[in-house]
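User:
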Amino acid sequence: MITDAPHIFMDISRLLSRARNPIPTGIDRVEYEYVSYLLKNEAHRLTFVAFHPVGCIGTLSTRAVCHFVDAMGQVWDGDRPLRDRLPRMAQRLTQSVLLSCWTMSRHQGDSIYLLVSHHHLTRPGPIEKFLSHHGSLFVPMVHDLIPLEFPEYARPGEPQRHARRMATVARLAASVIVPARAVAHSLAPYMKNRPADNHVHVVPHGLHLQLSSLSDAPVSRLPDDGRPYFVYLGTIEPRKNHLLLLNLWRAMVEEKGGAAPRLILVGRRGWENENILDMLERCPALQGNVLEYNDLSDPEVVSLLQGSQGLLFPSFSEGFGLPLVEAMVLGTPVVCSDIPVFHEVAGENAIYLDPTDGPAWRRAIDALLEKMPQGRTAVEAAGMNLFNWPRQVAAGIAVADETAAFFRSNGPRAS
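Assistant: Predicted structure:
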């Protein structure tokens, strides 16, 4: 039990930067859930902060953040009228940061600066200044090291940017939260020169609780012709390996025609994806057989997964894989890449295949076509235990509290 719990400076820079995007990414969801949990359970020791582009970190009005986060949650749940208001709310909050940078008083007592996204880790100066001003300990979350491990899938310059992020973490962090043991293993070489007081803590991500119940929000734009379909959730980028599925679908359509299942792609268009987009837009066999949605609400995604033959997840690399968990909780079959993090997350509840073995994926797809979506059993242990968001956020906050307690007992960290 932690006594004299530290004050928490919770950074929401990622959410502010994502106000124009109505559909959350996995990292967006993580920051949102940490904010929501802290507001409900730790508001007595909470101050929200954000990064301003001029190069400073300042405090925010808790009341204004509450209104913003509430609106963002409603937008994600499908409230379209709020979409236009959300960016203006974010802009006002960001503008207020600059004023607070000049007027912010020093916090007295133990405090933690909590950053659960990678936002502004390439700018260590403002972080270091904030830590020095408040005497705070830095507890960041590292979601993955994919740009460094697989630079061929990253945007130009992203490996260099991510290397700077990891250098910031290695130099300034008092402790680090990661979502999986696989990420901790990848991070270890970057932390090897740190003193012994640094710790990396594995805290798996949680699951949006709305996914644990049936949805009544069908995807109205999905053709109502009874054809079975499969789903892939994820940004359209090379790392996600969409080309494997698109080539399989072209062959299936050429073989079966209208009897072939559909493939539903859910996710925004990312980067370095020209070959994927060329197939989506110009391949005749895919027209009407592969459908792309980039603005579905959370309830619509739930409905889509529930009616599908299965989730297909052939990604080459992931830091965690939230879509896999979402599908498991709904009882939707999962076929995914045979990579360590997926085994860590799904255990025996998925079919694992080499992401380059097209024939094996075709056999798995054909096998799932023989099963009906109705009557499935959700993976209870994943849905309401290990992956419960409040529980997982509480574990992350416990890391921050234990970090403060450690430094309180052992004195300041050597530079």
